[in-house]
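Slide 14.
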Amino acid sequence: MKRLALSLLCLVAGGASAQAIKLNQVGFLPQAQKLAVAAQGVGEFEILKADGKTAFRGTAGAALRWEPSGESVRVLDFSALTRPGTYRIRIAGLPLSDPFTVNADGYRALNSAALKAFYFNRSAIALEPQHAGPWARPAGHPDDKVVVHASAASASRPAGTVLSSPKGWYDAGDYNKYVVNSGISTYTLLAAFEHFPAFFRQDIGIPESGDGIPDILDEAMWNLEWMLTMQDPQDGGVYHKLTNLRFDGIVMPHAASTTPRYVVAKGTAAALDFAATMATASRVLAPYDSKWPGMSARMLAAAQAAWRWAEAHPGVVFKNPQDVVTGEYGDATLGDEFAWAAAELFIATGDGRYAAALMKHDAPLSTPSWGNVAALGWMSLAHHRARLAPGLDRDLVARRIDGLAAHLAGAWRSSGYRLAMRPGDFVWGSNAVVLNQGMMLLQAYRLKPEPDYLRAAQSSLDYVLGRNPTGLSFVTGIGARPFRHPHHRPSMADGVEAPVPGWLSGGPNPGQQDAKECPPYPSKLPALSYIDHDCSYAANEVAINWNAPLVYVSAALSVLTPSTMTQETTVSLDALLREEQLLQFDRFDRDTATALGAALVARARSASRPVTVEIRQGDEVLFAQAMPGASPNHADWIRRKNNMVKRTGHSSFYTHNEVRQAGGDHDKLPGLDMRDYAAHGGAYPIVVRGRGAVGTVTASGLPGADDHALVVAALKDHLKIGEQP
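Slide 15: predicted structure.
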């Protein structure tokens, strides 16, 4: 095992010598909000380019105390720095900050590493050097001869029956496999692809790379195929886990215990998590039936069978049998699992009985975790809102998601570290809590592009990449000072100096459940209760359900962060009027609409922007196209923005700015029902000289300023008009 001396350990685990300027050590997309945190007494700061010249000067914000770390800190805001490059922050009297970049593709390497971590935790396959590099290893745990434990026995499969249950991911730092935790992990990867498919076109270097299937789906399939083996085909019930009777030692997978591994008791939570995940997979994988013939239909049938078993066994709470001491993942509250499975099955089948079951088990939304999965169902419902009527209230879906996001954004605004995290959020796996908060903020942003939702989500990623009280990046191999000693058996036993890359640490945990086995923690304060030591399974273990939201959030921010502007800026109304007078047509017909629409789509595709485009002449739609990852909700935004253009005769962005500059609220316009009107940018009048307005060209899916900029750029391209002074 690779251990640090205790004195050095405490130094980097949150002691006084931790980095004085805390920031995202990877960096930022050009138009993202860019924040760092420094000590209370800081005033002026400057951003230095790689050549040492000053690129930006600023003043720190007011001092705020952050209770989770007991600090009073100031926020450094340098969001106006948008030029790509490598930078550092300088504050008089303090060491320079860690370097960071501003880069339009800045999270690609992070995302690939976080996704490839799942490959490194595959069971039943050798990791070859061409894919795994120095972390190559022989195959471990083939699981082709797994024993039915007495707790899982049935008439058709009595205790001692031997099953084949290969593939799947090792759950965390141990070598067991758990259906409950696999469910949320696999779902989150599938959702990342379903929402942002264009982002995942690049290969990440796994054995399946180059097979014509996005690598994220190949990776998910490795676990989905294992999950299918955990269902009893006779009754549809699902075994809770595949495990040794006790944890393996600190050895490599192929050297781990050769004693039997078991499938252990069926349970309601496992059946419902399985049903939800399989229903999701059935729709996401349906376009790939030529690669996996019949798999989509098989998964939906398996989901429905698991649902029937759960309905017949609604209260089977899993507890470890007396002779099994591995991870329990016990959960006595099952309404959230019923709600999640019902939501996914409703989307997959349209059967109103599932919608009724969802509402029967309805509960307030909260940040998702393996033990509270209700929000995952609402996340899917939000993405598929256009398909819900008449079975479910679409506005209810939006209100639920927005309500959770508004609560999180409120906490973010008042936080010294600019985080939605409260002291009670520092639990086992606190880093996954902050990323799952970010994931839910991004769901709301996709429905309603409220800039603070995006900024708060950015902060969740900033936190795990270094803008935290320890000053560490909580992702192995990422950033200037990543943590190095995860509780992860392969990283501990492989003899390689560096840990397996791409893994997210569980993060600060004041429970300190491993305190008797580890060196002293530096603090009991929630955000400082962390040690970078491989003994620490309570604060420094890795897990698939913690890595999954890292994959989602890094991809979502890469796609959703505007390419032009994020802040509300003062825009000249005269300039917008001159623009409208300039961007007029001599003639307009269906061919014109087709050419203009193609220009818009080409611009959106080149930037991987998940927008929907529509061009109308009068009430007739002449062109419409949704980019990969576009939300069905865009259609309603287009309708409302078009109505605003028809009513005012100006672009919806003009009206937005006109109202704001007059001190009004663009979402509450007197005399207008805002369910039918939207004063957000993106809809533009099509004006023919001598005839006036004849239609609209509209884009939706980005912040209003970006939707407007996309449409204007395409109009200028089509009309061959260069930039005006």
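Speaker note: Residues 394-413 form the longest helix (20 residues).
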